[in-house]
Amino acid sequence: MKKTQVIVIGGGLAGLTAALHLCKNDIDVILVEKEGYPHHKVCGEYLSQEILTYLDWLKIDISSLNAPQINRMRYSSVSGKTINCDLEMGGIGVSRYSLDHLMYKKLKESGRHIIKTLVTRVDFKNDQFTVTTSNGEIITSEFVLGAFGKRSNLDKKLHRKFIQDQSGWLAVKAHYQTKPEFYPDDLVSLHNFNGGYCGLSKTELKTINVCYLATYESFKNYKNTDDYKAKVLMKNPHLKEFFNNAEMTFDKELSIAQVCFDKKSIIENHILMIGDSAGLIHPLCGNGMAMAIHSAKIASENIILFYEHKYKTRRDIERTYKSEWNYNFSSRIKAGRFLQKILLNTSLSNLSHSFLSKVPGILPMIIRKTHGKQVHV
């Protein structure tokens, strides 16, 4: 049996960030992650500039990845009408394959425990957590951070409300190569199609990340993703042009079913949820990666305050974390839900596109609603 101060379940962006932040403040941490590194994940792979100063504080050398700087956005309707704008804050195009691996190596250098296994059970009793893994290992701790992503078997075992309902969303991602002049480094594009939308952006791997979200209702009548791409996505002329001039570098696409954007509980059985486990913003907003990292920062800072005797009880931590999470993210997530409803309604989408074409200054204001300010320590 192992004993530690904090167990982090899940080694994605949120879990790795939390572990690094806590280690930097001499908190004893064990991170449990079922996958090895590096590996690809379904993700838009656009990282907002708002989080880069904080990553620098964590000693994560993003510049070593030579990720392209992105400062322009292009949006197209189903029919192919486009709107272009500069991104006020901008970001970088960086793959989860490289970024997660970079953070993992930094954590490994710290000498902290990283256990490659699956967590099967989390119990809380007498003010202590007991975590059981698939290999029979038992770890006890004072705190647990839940960073197990969009959907997990642990969500079922914790009887979380959102997991009880069927979700009608499918996410699909792959990397493509094309001629350098065909897709510029500094552009992120969002293309509507009937039943969803598709984002494209360059990565440090010299590939273009293509990630789309589709309703199950629009997908169910097609044999597979190739069929759906050819008969639905490629009705958008911009997507048709791209797919006709690009070659997939993955052996096969990655996909996630049952993607849920419903409201989630920030704290469950005293586990502080971070990243997608706490709440998922619609990918069209391009802010999911930064939000995951920022949420881990907030949770870590509150745990540190407890060990510095600034908080007296677990309840103090939970109350403050929930309040700070809502302050920073709830309005962004609501804005994302509102935007998605417009984009997936053909009449509203056409109407909004026409309006934005006439008043282009509105689009940067909308983007601002889904992003935060620079994150500092």
Task: Describe this protein's structure.
It contains 11 helices and 19 strands. With 377 residues, it is of the alpha/beta class. The protein has a domain at 2-46 and 96-166 and 260-344: FAD/NAD(P)-binding domain. The strands form 3 sheets. Strands 4, 5, 6, 12, 13, 14, 15, 16 and 17 form a 9-stranded mixed β-sheet that branches. A 6-stranded mixed β-sheet has the order 7-3-2-11-19-18. A 4-stranded mixed β-sheet has the order 1-10-9-8. Helix 1 (13-24) runs parallel beside helix 3 (96-109), helix 1 (13-24) runs parallel beside helix 8 and helix 8 runs antiparallel to helix 9 (314-343). The longest helix is centred in the last third of the chain and has 30 residues, at 314-343. The radius of gyration is 21 Å and the shape is globular. The model has no long low-confidence stretch (mean pLDDT 92).
- CATH structural class of one domain: Alpha Beta
CATH topology (fold) name of one domain: FAD/NAD(P)-binding domain
Mean pLDDT: 92
Name the poorly predicted regions. none
- Taken from the alpha-carbon principal axes, the silhouette is globular
Distance between the termini: 35 Å
Summarize the structure.
The protein is 34% helix and 27% strand.
